[in-house]
Amino acid sequence: MRTQVAIIGAGPAGLVLSHLLHLRGIESVVVERRSREYVEKRVRAGVLEQGTVDLLRATGVSAGLDRDGLPHHGIELLFDGVSHRIPLTELSGGRSITIYGQQRVVSDLTEARLAAGGQLYFSADDVVVDPAVPRVTFMHEGQRVELDCDFIAGCDGFHGVCREVLPSATSYEREYPFAWLGILADVAPSNDELVYANTDRGFALLSLRSPTVSRLYLQVDPLEDLAAWSDDRVWDELHVRLAHSGWSLKEGPVLEKAITPMRSFVCEPMQHGRLFLAGDAAHIVPPTGAKGLNLAIHDVHVLAEAMGDWYDSGRSTGLDAYSATCLRRVWRVQHFSWWMTSMLHSFPGEDPFQQRLQRSQLEYVVSSSAAATKLAENYVGLPWT
Ligand code: RFL
Ligand code: PHB
Q1: Which of 18, 104, 210, 218 is 20 to 30 Å from the Cα of 306, by its Cα?
Q2: Ligand 2 centroid vs 196 CA: distance in angstroms?
Q3: Is residue 379 flagged as an active site residue?
Q4: Is the Cβ atom of 282 under 6 angstroms away from ligand 1?
Q5: pTM tops 0.85, yes or no
Q6: Catalytic residue at 291?
Q7: Assigned CATH for 176-258
Q8: What is the pLDDT at residue 247?
Q9: Residue 385: what pLDDT?
Q10: Per-domain boundaries in the chain
């Protein structure tokens, strides 16, 4: 079998890339290790930047987003029991974020690709990538499939296989001494806007997925046993960390519960020959800045433009510059995500000097419009260049 672009992974990066290439008349095949049902149920991101929303709208895949997406114009930072609003839209020249679950983005894109006759192989086993040919082979429904192509796009997430076949790449990494325990709860969000809370018992976040479903997170030890966190214990801890005079936390049935480690990671360069990495396959950020999915979509936008230019005119300038172009935004987002994480979490063993620096940073962000603007423009997403 032959295609123009073999895409490994049907997460946001792989599906959006396949969609953008299709709009440019370029054929692709998407090869995904998991089943369609698994991929569409995986609970992950919820915050879409302005640029992500603009791209989904401009490319005709925003029917669900336009109907159910919830635009937000501010977030709250809660510390010392007092909540401070950061007016995102006011401080960023009218930009905003939209709450819309990642699994909705994935199922909207999957449907759009299938409706347009796109080739998606789910439940593919033993995926082997050979960038030298280039060729991808995999097992599907008991048959070995050989897929020859012009390019391979490694959109297979942090635990994928594509990064491993990049020769001479350098990794830059930070591990954090904490993780997030996240729950999805069948209850209306307790507050209209997201609340990021810094407390001496650790960080907490109140978010949402819809007018009737809340998403909440607690900072926990990275080695914490999920079984030690009964629903009652999670709610008790959320009550303490989100205690505040303006509203009270509403409880509801817990629909999902999981612990996610926190990591910053960048692989440089993001390309070799005809293999290009995009999204979590190339970089990971801690979720405090709500950036991972948005960065993945920016990467594939750059890649689709560069491939389009190559097919249209034979020019390889865009492809040659792919890694350098993406890495500029990747490192801006890395800094922002690290900064938000450092400002909002408790660091085990932190000395009183560090604690006072953190408090000073929080007070500065909520009292200086210059400092709040830095947060706002990064949070809604700096304009794509
Ligand atoms: P994905 O989504 O991991 O998709 C990769 C796909 O590749 C498949 N795969 C393979 N397929 C074939 N062969 C192999 N060998 C394969 N190995 C893996 C996988 O099954 C999968 O389907 O990567 P992608 O597309 O780069 O997308 C990245 C995002 O998923 C990720 O950055 C975000 O979820 C991060 N994130 C957030 N990002 C935001 O922009 N806003 C948020 O609000 C936000 N919140 C979050 C988050 C991530 C979280 N967790 C669970 C890590 C909150 C959390 C808790
Ligand atoms: C989410 O709703 O899942 C979410 C919101 C904000 C973040 C991270 C995750 O910073």
Answers
A1: 104
A2: 10
A3: yes
A4: no
A5: yes
A6: yes
A7: 3.30.9.10
A8: 84
A9: 82
A10: 5-71+100-172+263-347, 176-258
